[in-house]
Design brief:
The protein has about 200 residues and is α/β, with parallel strands linked by helices. It contains 8 helices and 7 strands. Helices cover about 50% and strands about 25% of the residues.
């Protein structure tokens, strides 16, 4: 009931997504995925309180692939669960190692996607990561974006509440980029609110 015209840009985009999907399946096996640890600094005394785990992909041919490109592909293909589990386990293990080595109490903040929330196994994944790494639950922060809350409101409320009951801190990221609704602050008991720079 309509007319559509072939668009070369759409065709190229589809090919790019297919390639990313194919390469992403092997990225973990080949050790191409890396975690960068961005320090979180207390500006009152200029000390590092913890770190944010940032996932990066270094491809031998494509070079550095932006998370904005490969994360949506991982979510669409279902790979985000496996990748997210790896990031959570590796980040908890690394920070526990640093805490033991330096006698510190660094926390680690890990991003959680809406797909992970909907898949149903996130609470067990978090529990397992804490157990295997021996990281105290209070030193793990799980971050969700405001847009994730909008799209996965009902499941997010239940899952995040269960994670909090483990002793894990919950933070909302990019607040101000979505609906910027203050009602979320009443509906979810967040420990940390990260206001997006554009909103400020």
């Amino acid at each position: 009931g309509r007319i559509e015209f072939f668009n070369p840009e759409m065709h190229q985009k589809a090919i790019t997504i297919m390639r990313l999907d194919s390469e992403l399946h092997h990225a973990m096996e080949r050790g191409e995925l890396q975690i960068y640890y961005q320090p979180v600094v207390d500006t009152n005394n200029n000390t590092v309180g913890g770190f944010e785990a940032l996932l990066r992909w270094e491809h031998p041919e494509m070079g550095s692939v932006s998370p904005e490109k490969f994360i949506p592909v991982a979510e669409a293909t279902g790979l985000i669960g496996k990748i997210g589990e790896w990031v959570l386990n590796e980040a908890c293990r690394q920070v526990h190692q640093w805490n033991e080595q330096y006698g510190s109490h660094f926390f680690i903040s890990v991003n959680i996607s809406g797909k992970q929330i909907d898949d149903g196994g996130l609470v067990d994944t978090v529990r397992q990561a804490l157990s295997s790494s021996e990281l105290p639950a209070g030193l793990l922060h799980c971050e969700v974006t405001e847009s994730t809350l909008v799209r996965h409101k009902e499941s997010a409320a239940r899952v995040l509440n269960e994670i909090q009951q483990l002793g894990v801190h919950i933070s909302i990221d990019d607040f101000g980029t979505g609906y910027s609704s203050l009602t979320y602050l009443h509906q979810f008991s967040f420990d940390i609110l990260k206001i997006d720079q554009s909103f400020v």
